[in-house]
Amino acid sequence: MKKMNGTKRLMTVLLIVVFVALTGAVLTGAQSVSRAKEALSRISPVTYTEESREAIEDATQAVRALDTGLGLSELFDLEALTAAQVEYIRLAIRDLYLTLETGSETEILEKMQIARALVDGWLLPEDTERISNLGDLVEVENAYQTAAPAIKETEPEEEELELCGI
Asked: How many CB atoms lie within 10 A of CB 128?
């Protein structure tokens, strides 16, 4: 049996390392696709419940975790996810609006913050126009911004500094 010289041994080890790394990437990609498919299948029907929010959040995270370099997110119809996000946000804003009549200021502010966080966290700016009652959220935000005392951090006054001419 012939002995391998140092260069051949190094090349063999490098090929094995590359093969293992590529195999791992393919398996990880396949697992990510499987996880995203499963998460997307759990989002329907959309109701304003914690279970529905968790299903949409899981699907959102699973899709965002897909390796964009491999084009894995293109395997999915992301319209269904966006539609579910929009519907859940619409229901959250509706819940906020219903709370205006009977809820405390604390409840209203909490629901307003939740609705805004969902809009900003889930949707791309171009998708926000699909929320049919987004104007209601903006209206409540504006009303509570002007009604509540503004808490502003006091900025230190600018001091005039004397600079030495060099």
From this structure: 15
- pTM of the prediction? 0.68
Task: Evaluate the omega torsion of the peptide bond into residue 45 and state whether it is cis, within 30 degrees of 0.
Answer: yes
Tokens standing for 32?
Answer: 């990510």
CA 35 to chain centre: 16
Q: Phi, psi at residue 45, to the nearest 5°? A: -80, 160
Side chain identity at residue 65, one-letter code:
A
95 vs 75: CA distance, rounded Å? 34
Among 63, 82, 61, 80, smallest CA distance to 72 is for 63
Q: How does pLDDT run across 84-134, given as a tens digit for each residue?
A: 999 999 999 999 999 999 999 999 999 999 999 999 999 999 999 999 999
CA distance 105 to 109: 6
DSSP codes, 31-56: HHHHHHHHHHHT--S--SSHHHHHHH
Q: Which residues contact 99 (CB under 8 A, 6 or more apart)?
A: 107, 108, 111
DSSP three-state, residue 70: helix
Roughly what angle, to the nearest 10 degrees, separates helices 134-147 and 78-102?
Answer: 40
